[in-house]
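Translate structure to sequence.
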């Protein structure tokens, strides 16, 4: 890998001494570690946010108000995979974490082949560390050593392990829904046939360490390449009906809460974003029951909270969920707003318009502080933000197109190559030119 000429925010080793000192201070990197790669995503290259790769592992800090960055040792990483504009780190404990591609490349210079190569190099380093680290009896659970396959099996069978806690919680809380909604055709709760499991692992690109908890595909001709899949590591969905399309994955530690409303399961993420999945991906319409939908959402929220508690000592400080509850009814959009809510919405509009629908770090921090100071809950803030585009009702395909457009527009004007990618995606999803313009314009004010 070579450093881009003239770059002041991306370094492949050969880092100036003053920059190196700032990196070590900000990311708390010891003098014994060599810095191999660094990309600064903070405002004005302050070295407060970004990603660092060292001889000891990978560090990242995405939050301007955090006290400590996240550090993952090489011995914990099994491999890295590039998909959906993120490089996913897959860990030996069965969990994973997606890192946005902007932490590795500047959007204007990004090429998928480069991302695939970067992920392959990270995987090779991780495998090298696994080969050279041989655990002994005194270091099975310490010293950063990689567990052997046998030890992993023992840990995962331990009822105290996070993976097993997630599995047991889902099985216990979903028993009624399993007895009511499971069938041998397209809806499974836990007990999935071996041939279907194999197809799911290939179709959704999930690791062999993940246990499948739930899968449903509502299509007339059921396919394991489509639908919603829930595992012990997170939630996957593939709604585009294309064999060439990779499933979208969100890990449990990214989810803040899940709520059912307006015939959709709404996933609220800790970075302030949300995503809606049609209820048909969870229940057959003829058997749909409002109480069951609310219960399903509550169980997913409970799993997300369990993961947050488990990693509380290793993740960055982010907005809390102290006032976030699973609701069964919601205020009507467009209803009367308090003065505080009007003030928040006005500021949100200005931030939304300033960056073409995306938020800078400082803007997101400002909104979060304003929300707390005005006494507005996370749930109500999401409702206010959603109310900006009440007339635009999106299908699953249109929502997928909008998410891709947001990614392309995140760093300014859309390049010619990005526009060609969007046009191909639009045609694949069956979206007209006129509708695409309407969708794209929905994120601007």
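Result:
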């Amino acid at each position: 890998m070579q450093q881009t000429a003239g770059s002041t925010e991306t370094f492949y080793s050969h880092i100036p001494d003053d920059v190196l000192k700032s990196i070590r201070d900000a990311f708390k990197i010891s003098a014994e570690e060599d810095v191999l790669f660094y990309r600064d995503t903070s405002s004005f290259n302050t070295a407060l946010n970004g990603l660092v790769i060292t001889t000891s592992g990978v560090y990242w800090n995405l939050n301007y108000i955090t006290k400590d960055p996240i550090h993952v040792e090489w011995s914990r990483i099994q491999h890295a995979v590039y998909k959906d504009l993120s490089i996913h780190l897959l860990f030996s404990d069965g969990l994973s974490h997606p890192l946005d591609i902007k932490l590795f490349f500047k959007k204007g210079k990004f090429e998928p082949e480069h991302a695939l190569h970067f992920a392959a190099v990270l995987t090779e380093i991780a495998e090298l560390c696994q080969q050279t680290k041989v655990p002994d009896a005194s270091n099975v659970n310490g010293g950063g050593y990689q567990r052997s396959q046998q030890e992993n099996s023992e840990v995962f069978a331990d009822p105290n392990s996070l993976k097993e806690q997630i599995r047991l919680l889902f099985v216990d809380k979903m028993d009624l829904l399993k007895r009511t909604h499971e069938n041998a055709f397209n809806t499974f709760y836990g007990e999935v046939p071996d041939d279907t499991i194999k197809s799911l692992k290939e179709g959704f690109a999930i690791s062999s360490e993940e246990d499948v908890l739930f899968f449903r595909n509502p299509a007339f001709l059921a396919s394991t390449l489509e639908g919603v899949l829930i595992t012990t590591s997170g939630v996957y969905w593939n709604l585009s009906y294309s064999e060439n399309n990779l499933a979208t994955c969100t890990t449990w530690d990214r989810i803040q809460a899940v709520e059912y409303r307006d015939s959709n399961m709404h996933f609220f993420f800790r970075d302030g974003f949300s995503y809606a999945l049609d209820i048909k991906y969870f229940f057959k319409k003829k058997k749909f029951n409002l109480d069951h939908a609310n219960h399903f959402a509550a169980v997913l929220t409970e799993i997300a909270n369990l993961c947050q508690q488990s990693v509380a000592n290793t993740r960055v400080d982010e907005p809390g969920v102290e006032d976030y509850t699973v609701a069964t009814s919601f205020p009507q959009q467009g209803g009367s707003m308090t003065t505080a809510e009007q003030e928040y919405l006005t500021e949100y509009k200005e931030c939304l318009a300033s960056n073409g629908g995306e938020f800078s770090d400082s803007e997101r921090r400002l909104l979060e502080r304003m929300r707390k100071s005005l006494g507005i809950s996370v749930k109500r803030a999401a409702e206010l933000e959603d109310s900006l585009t009440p007339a635009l009702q999106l299908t699953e395909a249109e929502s997928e197109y909008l998410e891709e457009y947001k990614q392309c527009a995140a760093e300014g004007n859309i390049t010619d190559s990005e526009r060609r990618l969007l046009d191909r995606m639009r045609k694949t999803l069956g979206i007209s030119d006129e509708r695409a313009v309407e969708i794209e314009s929905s994120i601007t004010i």
